[in-house]
Amino acid sequence: MIFITESDSLEDYLAESEEVDFSHLSIREKAAELYAISSNDEEFIGHAYRFVRDEISHSWDIQSPRITRKASEVLYFKEGICYAKSHLLCAVLRSQGVPAGFCYQKLTLGDAPDTGYCVHALNAVFLKSLGRWIRLDARGNKPGVHAEFSLHGEQLAFPVREACNEIDYPKIYAHPHPHTIRALKQNTDCVQMCLHGLPAELMS
Predict the structure, then answer these.
(1) What is the dihedral of CA 5, 43, 70, 132, to 10 degrees?
(2) Which residues contact 133 (CB under 8 A, 6 or more apart)?
(3) Is residue 184 within 8 Å of residue 18, measured between CB atoms?
(4) Highest taxon of the source (predicted)?
(5) Whether the predicted pLDDT of 67 surpasses 70
């Protein structure tokens, strides 16, 4: 897949924002802890990815009504949907100088198009050693969903099914997409948001 970066400057993929609040003490401490057990950036990215994937619950999987948005909230409550988990992974990586951005997919809500569509979030990370971007999906594994950190071919949570009109959006955004932030801000119950309140597609 050919990626399109929203910005030509890697500095824009290191910026802090309301959702990617990596100056928060809890983010800095967790990032430093993960960096300390890594011998290089690639190992750190792997540790950070697996921490968010495995230690932060996906809100739908645990049927939690809580909506988290800021990376520090996601870390504190240890839960969030894919949008929120992508904010946390981005914050942890950026806090240690690793450029990271946001990517999206249009997926069916259920197993078929007649169930409707939703926008799914994942991350893109720039590997300086390879001079290229890779995508990582920290949504969280479960039966039927198995994503991994891989340098030699993507292992995402949801491979796109073109026959179902699903889409891999090629753009790597420097900030979370406004449609996803709007959903997190306008809803009050996460279970109901996942059923009825997620954006169905992105209009760049």
Answers:
(1) 0
(2) 3, 5, 101, 124, 125, 126, 127, 172
(3) no
(4) Bacteria
(5) yes
10 Å CB burial of residue 204 (0-12, 13-18, 19+) is exposed
Question: What is the distance between the alpha carbons of residues 90 and 197, in angstroms, rounded to a whole number?
Answer: 24
Residue 147 has pLDDT above 90, yes or no: yes
What are the structural domains, with CATH classification, of the chain? 4-197 (3.10.620.30)
- Condensed to tens digits (0 to 9), the pLDDT of residues 79-93 reads 999 999 999 999 999
Closest to 101 measured CA to CA, from 172, 46, 202, 157? 172
- Predicted confidence at residue 204, as pLDDT, reads 62
